[in-house]
Amino acid sequence: MSKSKIHIIGGPTASGKSAHALELASEEDGVIINADSMQVYDGLHLLTAQPPQEDFEKAPHLLYSALHPNEPCSAGNWREMVEPIIHETLRDGKIPIIVGGSGLYIKALMDGLSPIPDIPQEVRDRVVALHEELGNPRFYDALHERDPIMAERFHPFHTARLIRAYEVIEATGKSLAEWQELPLITPPDDWIFHVNLILPERETLYNRCNERFLWMMDNGAIEEVEAFDIALKSGEIVDNVPLIKALGAPALREYINGDTSKDEAITKAQGQTRQYAKRQITWFKHQIKKQKNVASIKILN
What we know:
CATH superfamily of the largest domain: P-loop containing nucleotide triphosphate hydrolases
Largest sheet: 6 strands, parallel
CATH class of the largest domain: Alpha Beta
Number of helices: 13
CATH architecture of the largest domain: 3-Layer(aba) Sandwich
Order of helices and strands: EHEHEHEHHHHHHEHHHHE
Number of strands: 6
Number of domains: 3
Strand content: 5-15%
Shape: globular
Low-confidence stretches: none
């Protein structure tokens, strides 16, 4: 069986992934495919650091601004979108270049996922509301009554994990433990991944995070977030969509709504960006490992 090469470019925000992807696309006749959970959405193009228009003109870029902010996009949803694109790219004789900082998306593609059905948004909303009503200890007891196996795996204050376990049994009637025991849905055997992880020195990365946010501020970030805020208040974009948590968005919305000063918003956004970048570095260092469908893992600065 002939092998199909797929490049993966991962790393923290502001590390230079997009520039590296563009260079690689030029060298290998590649198609750049987004693996960033915020850049997949339309609405905050600048603030989510999507590639500029001139990059789109130099090489094909797919799955950027592909979804309305109201549409859910889990790692499973993204994988369902990206796999047909990879197949088509390979059929066209081009090289797929998957680039992004959402490690769970990349891991879902390379390792596979348990065959858990998508959880309907109304179920998720209902479970979150129940958690808010009960609080952690009583919500934990409610989960323990319905799914003792999963409840006993978690601390009563592991909020996200408790909610996930509850919504799965609520939507499917089966414990998350049962789903996790099923074989993973893995990528095709002929797909071979070549991984480049861009992990700059921490001080260098933090400086890039700070400087990039200032550049965003000088190039329309406030106006972009103002338009987003108006769409939220009008109901065009529903509350609690993932994009509302894009790096810098909460702080700038506070400034726009008069709850903080511009300087304080900038400082807060820069700090959150640096903290997120630090978590991303830790994740990529520990979660991306050599395996049978990975030809190479290179660490770049």
